[in-house]
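Figure 2 data, in text form.
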Amino acid sequence: MTADRLQTLLHAETYWTARALREQGSRFYRALGEALEAADLGNRRRIYAAWTDELWEFYERGLRLEAAEREGAAGEG
């Protein structure tokens, strides 16, 4: 299961996961979100591989943030 999650994380847009990390509130997770967003592919792979299960939760939160933002934008138009 972790290998599938790692592949999903590597192919997903980084922005939403990093945003969920930054919005979490903890200085550690904010810094991790900043590092994730700034990382090149090799370093993103290292971050995701080391923290696959922990970052999966933030990936899912990011999906919800993205969906909420899209719903809000659709409601404004």
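Caption note: Residues 2-76 form one domain.
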